[in-house]
Design a protein that fits this description.
Distance between the termini: 46 Å
Radius of gyration: 22 Å
Number of domains: 1
Shape: globular
Number of strands: 4
Strand content: under 5%
Helix content: 55-70%
Order of helices and strands: HHEHHHHHHHHHHHEHHHHHEEH
Strand order of the largest sheet: 1-2
Largest sheet: 2 strands, antiparallel
Structural class: mainly alpha
Length: 462
């Protein structure tokens, strides 16, 4: 069904079930791809995944997720930064050649091991989604309150600081100029339409040009690459015992991505219903589809896990673009998915992306990893977590110190508690921190201070 503007109000926009004219659908789809491209590709570069497969999986995963949500939830799925640290840890443990040489751009052995963990994440997301559909979100919030999810997000971002600075050290001048350019674009291009959605892309291009002028970029691989090539699709290494050791580590990162995805759903629901009201159409209220949204998230991760793409998440950048353009059309997002799939087969594009110098990705990473951490702070603020309450302070402080400190101070970022088959080499710091927070919160739920005559302290944030 094609959307029409309401003549008397001159309101133009597309609701999820609307299908724009073909020309508009393609141009709007291209905008969606441009918006997701920089971050999605950067995650692939940082984790040694195949760029072509990542684009292919992003497009196909988005289409599958849209179909699973019955074309009701307009979301585009790209690579998630939240999984970078645990993916790098897993590859360093079980595929040591992956990061031994900075010139290595793809590590098939490590990817196959991580794929099993990504599928584990998909299972967690789907199960949580089905659970919410049955018992409601409030029950989940009791087990995973904002103090846990927010602090885990902080740990995920800050724990990557060493990786970001290590990459930047390849050429500090290039890294710093890339960082400054990215920050400038992020701050001063806000509200400027499509270009305001692409600060990472512009920052990468600026850093790339600086590096090329300094003679750092080598184009030999681009010249040798074929225009059309089959992406390096890999099958998960289910037969490898080490693969099962990373399942728990990777899937637990869903603790941070589930609240992020839910927040995106709430935001989109507000925008979509506001447009529906202006178009004099019934509200859609996708905010009620929290469980279905998580099932769709899991469906995307099944696709990327089976193909060898990076673990995914629905993209806030694309949501912002939809809000700006007032385009929430699911057919447009499916068109974007098809475009991403086709880009995955462009060999020279993948080769060009892989020529991005390490220092450029380092400059981008300093900013992006910091943003992940700050989003955790923002979650704690927005949910008005009572940080004057000892219970909240205890949970948060333990997560932060064990997560950040463990990752930076312990050998390989592992706590020396070996669990056969699951954590044979020790427990990754981020996972250990999340487990500590969850267990401590469960103790407080089972033994609330009120049972001992202790009153909750006033929340001065209210």
């Amino acid at each position: 069904m094609a959307t029409v503007a309401v003549p008397d109000q001159k309101v133009i926009g597309y609701l999820p079930q609307d299908t724009p004219p073909v020309g508009s659908m393609i141009s709007l789809g291209i905008q969606q791809v441009l918006t997701m491209f920089p971050a999605t590709v950067l995650v692939a570069i940082l984790t040694k995944f195949d760029v072509g497969v990542t684009l292919l999986a992003s497009g196909l995963g988005t289409i599958i997720a849209l179909l699973v949500s019955k074309r009701r939830i307009p979301m585009y799925y790209g690579s998630s930064f939240s999984y970078i640290s645990v993916v790098i840890t897993a590859m360093n443990l079980y595929a040591k050649d992956c990061f031994a040489d900075s010139a290595t751009t793809y590590c098939g052995e490590g990817v196959r091991i991580v794929q099993v963990g990504i599928i584990g994440t998909a299972v967690v997301e789907i199960l949580v989604g089905l659970l919410i559909m049955r018992v409601g979100k409030d029950a989940l919030d009791r087990v995973l309150p904002p103090v846990i999810t927010g602090c885990v997000a902080i740990v995920i971002g800050i724990a990557l600081a060493g990786s970001a600075l290590g990459s930047a050290s390849a050429n500090w001048l290039v890294a710093i100029l890339t960082l400054l350019a990215t920050v400038v674009f992020s701050v001063y291009l806000q509200g400027k339409g499509l270009i305001g959605m692409l600060p990472i892309l512009f920052g990468a291009i600026f850093g790339y040009i600086v590096a090329a002028l300094m003679g750092i970029v080598k184009f030999d691989a681009v010249a040798a690459a074929e225009w059309v090539r089959v992406p390096r699709i890999t099958f998960p290494a289910f037969e490898n015992p080490n693969s099962w050791a990373v399942v728990v580590s990777i899937s637990l990162i869903a603790i941070a991505t589930i609240p992020e995805s839910t927040a995106h759903l709430y935001q989109m629901s507000l925008y979509i219903d506001a447009l529906a009201k202006q178009l004099k159409r019934a509200p859609i209220e996708i905010k009620k589809l929290i469980g279905l949204n998580l099932v769709a998230d899991g469906s995307d991760d099944i696709v990327v896990g089976l193909l060898g793409g990076c673990a995914g998440t629905n993209y806030g950048e694309n949501n912002s673009l939809m809000a700006i353009t007032r385009n929430y059309s699911v057919p447009v997002l499916m068109t974007a998915g098809v475009i991403a799939i086709l880009l995955g087969f462009v060999g020279k594009l993948a080769a060009l992306v892989e020529t991005i110098p390490t220092a450029v990705t380092g400059g981008l990473s300093i900013y992006l990893f910091g943003v992940i951490g700050m989003q955790g702070v923002a979650l704690i603020q927005s949910e008005k977590v009572n940080l004057f309450e000892p219970r909240q302070l205890a949970i948060g402080s333990i997560i932060l110190v064990t997560g950040i400190g463990g990752n930076l101070a312990l050998k390989d970022g592992l706590f020396p508690f070996q669990i056969p088959a699951i954590f044979p080499n020790g427990i990754p710091a981020i996972v250990f921190a999340a487990i500590c927070g969850i267990v401590l919160n469960l103790i407080f739920l089972a033994l609330p201070p009120s049972k001992f005559g202790v009153e909750d302290r006033e929340n001065l944030n209210d």
